[in-house]
C-alpha cells in the first residue's frame, strides 16, 4: 500500500513555457502533500506544503507566483512551474502524508524537468 | 550550521559487510526519526521510523537513537549490491499527521560485489 505516483516522469520544455506536474496518492487519501526539489547529489529541499482545500504554505525563498500549487482533492496535488527558465531545471518530488500515520510521508518517483 | 548533518560519503563497502550510517542534529526538540533509501532518479522510500532512544530492528536494518548525544544511526547487516543507494535521515519535532520533515544531506553507499 501507500503508493504515490507522479506524472510526467520527465519533461523537456522551452524557456518561457509553463509545466504542470501531477502528484497522486493511489491507495489512500492525503490531506497533506509536500513538494520538494532536489539538485544532483544534494538532499531534498522542501518547497511547499499543500493542504487539501486551502492555500499552500511556501518555504522561505520559494516564489509562490512561480511555483503554483493546487490541492483540489484528497488524492491529487499539482505543481505548475510558470515561465520556466533553465535554472528551474531540477528533479521535483512530491510526497503524501496519510492522516492516520504520524510524520510518515510516502514519496512519488519524481519528475525530472529540463528547461532549454 | 545545518540542523541535521550527515556525511555525504561515498561510503564503499564489500558485499556482506556492515554498513554504518549516522546523523547528528542540533535541535533537541526533534522527537521522531526516520531513515529513507533513495535510488538514483527515484523518490525516497521509508526504511525505518523510530521515536524513542534505543535500538529498533527490522530484518537486516537496525536504527539507533541517542537523544542525549543528538545522534542517530542506521546499520545494515549482510549488505548486498542492491543496498547501493543514497540514505537520508529525516526528523520531526511533533507527532502529527502531515507534519513536515527536516532531512539530512544524504550518504551515498556503494556495496561492491
What does this structure look like?
The complex is a heterodimer of chains A (116) and B (113). With 116 residues, chain A is mostly beta strands. Chain A has strands spanning 4-7, 10-13, 19-25, 32-38, 44-51, 57-58, 67-73, 76-81, 90-97, 106-107, 111-115. Chain A has no helices and 11 strands. Chain A is globular. The mean pLDDT of chain A is 91. Helices cover 0% and strands 53% of the residues of chain B. Chain B starts with a strand and ends with a strand. In chain B, 34% of the residues are buried. The chains are: A mainly beta (116), B mainly beta (113). Chains A and B meet through β5, β9 and β10 of A and β4 and β5 of B.
Name its key features.
heterodimer; A: 116 residues; mainly beta; globular; B: mainly beta; six-stranded mixed sheet; five-stranded antiparallel sheet
Q: How are the SSEs ordered, and which strands pair?
A:
The complex is a heterodimer of chains A (116) and B (113).
Chain A: E1 4-7, E2 10-13, E3 19-25, E4 32-38, E5 44-51, E6 57-58, E7 67-73, E8 76-81, E9 90-97, E10 106-107, E11 111-115
Parallel strand pairs in A: 2-11
Antiparallel strand pairs in A: 1-3, 3-8, 4-5, 4-9, 5-6, 7-8, 9-10, 9-11
Chain B: E1 4-6, E2 11-14, E3 19-25, E4 32-38, E5 45-50, E6 54-58, E7 61-66, E8 71-76, E9 85-92, E10 102-103, E11 107-112
Parallel strand pairs in B: 2-11
Antiparallel strand pairs in B: 1-3, 3-8, 4-5, 4-9, 6-7, 7-8, 9-10, 9-11
Briefly summarize what is shown.
With 116 residues, chain A is mostly beta strands. The radius of gyration of chain A is 13 Å and the shape is globular.
Amino acid at each position: 500500500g501507500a503508493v504515490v505516483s507522479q506524472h510526467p516522469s520527465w519533461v523537456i520544455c522551452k524557456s518561457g513555457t509553463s509545466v504542470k506536474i501531477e502528484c497522486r496518492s493511489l491507495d489512500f487519501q492525503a490531506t497533506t502533500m509536500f513538494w520538494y526539489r532536489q539538485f544532483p547529489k544534494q538532499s531534498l529541499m522542501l518547497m511547499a506544503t499543500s493542504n487539501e482545500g486551502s492555500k499552500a504554505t511556501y518555504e522561505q525563498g520559494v516564489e509562490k507566483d512561480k511555483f503554483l500549487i493546487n490541492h483540489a482533492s484528497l488524492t491529487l496535488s499539482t505543481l505548475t512551474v510558470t515561465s520556466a527558465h533553465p535554472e528551474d531545471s531540477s528533479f521535483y518530488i512530491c510526497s503524501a502524508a496519510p492522516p492516520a500515520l504520524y510524520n510518515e510521508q510516502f514519496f512519488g518517483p519524481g519528475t525530472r524537468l529540463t528547461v532549454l | 550550521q545545518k540542523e541535521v548533518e550527515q556525511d555525504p560519503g561515498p561510503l564503499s563497502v564489500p558485499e556482506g559487510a556492515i554498513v554504518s550510517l549516522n546523523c547528528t542534529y542540533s535541535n533537541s526538540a526533534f522527537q521522531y526519526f526516520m531513515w529513507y533509501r533513495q535510488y538514483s532518479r527515484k523518490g525516497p522510500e521509508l526504511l525505518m521510523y523510530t521515536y524513542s532512544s534505543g535500538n529498533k530492528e527490522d530484518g537486516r536494518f537496525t536504527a539507533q537513537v541517542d537523544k542525549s548525544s543528538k545522534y542517530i544511526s542506521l546499520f545494515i547487516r549482510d549488505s548486498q549490491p542492491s543496498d547501493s543507494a543514497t540514505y537520508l535521515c529525516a526528523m520531526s519535532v511533533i507527532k502529527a499527521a502531515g507534519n513536515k520533515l527536516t532531512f539530512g544531506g544524504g550518504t551515498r553507499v556503494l556495496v561492491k560485489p
